[in-house]
Task: inverse folding
């Protein structure tokens, strides 16, 4: 009886169209689409140093804001402040206040006002601007280091890596697909800065640093707060 059912089933299957190939094609297409959506941009810079907690959480906040999850993003900022405080590290507000004092900016005020108003656009601008200042701080440290022959090459390399990581983890990850040409040009500038650091070529490095700052302030003007230093 079972043999007859199998024979009957096989003969029926020969007449019916097999849905498997069509289903397989659809699944393959979906996988390709997903890979295209989540894969990093071509030639993406790999993180060279362990990702600082602050930088990693800032990226998480931006992801939530991109998904219009403003309340969750603000809650995460609060948890970041508590986490860093337990580790004896400055949080977003303290870091912004320190950089504001150094660069005469108002990122901390903008951050606080954006959180109070639950203003997603302004909050994103504050985080992008804070990232820019963190990167600029590292590059300014390198400017001083390159004029001091006593600084070890390994130390200069770590600081340069951190500056690149700030750019890559926020700006490249966020804008790599939307503005690939501009991001790639800035990555190439960072490559040349890397070379200048290795060669301890202070004048070349400073020229490239100004070039990078001007490109960032120009290409991301709509996302950054006004009044940032170049």
Result:
């Amino acid at each position: 009886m079972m043999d007859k059912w199998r024979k009957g089933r096989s003969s029926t299957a020969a007449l019916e169209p097999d849905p498997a190939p069509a289903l397989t094609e659809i699944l393959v297409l979906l996988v390709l689409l997903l890979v295209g959506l989540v894969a990093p941009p071509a030639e993406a810079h790999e993180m060279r140093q362990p990702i600082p907690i602050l930088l990693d959480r800032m990226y998480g906040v931006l992801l939530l804001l991109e998904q219009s999850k403003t309340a969750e993003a603000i809650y995460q900022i609060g948890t970041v402040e508590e986490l860093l405080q337990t580790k004896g590290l400055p949080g977003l507000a303290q870091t912004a206040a320190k950089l504001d004092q150094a660069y005469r900016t108002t990122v901390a005020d903008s951050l606080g006002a954006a959180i109070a108003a639950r203003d997603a656009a302004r909050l994103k601008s504050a985080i992008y601007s804070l990232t820019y200042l963190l990167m600029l701080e590292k590059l300014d440290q390198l400017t001083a280091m390159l004029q001091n022959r006593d600084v070890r090459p390994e130390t200069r390399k770590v600081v340069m890596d951190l500056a690149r990581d700030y750019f890559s983890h926020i700006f490249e990850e966020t804008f790599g697909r939307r503005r690939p040409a501009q991001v790639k040009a800035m990555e190439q500038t960072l490559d040349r800065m890397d070379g200048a650091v290795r060669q301890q070529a202070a004048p070349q490095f400073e020229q490239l640093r100004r070039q990078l700052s001007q490109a960032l302030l120009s290409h991301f003007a709509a996302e950054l707060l006004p009044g940032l230093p170049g």
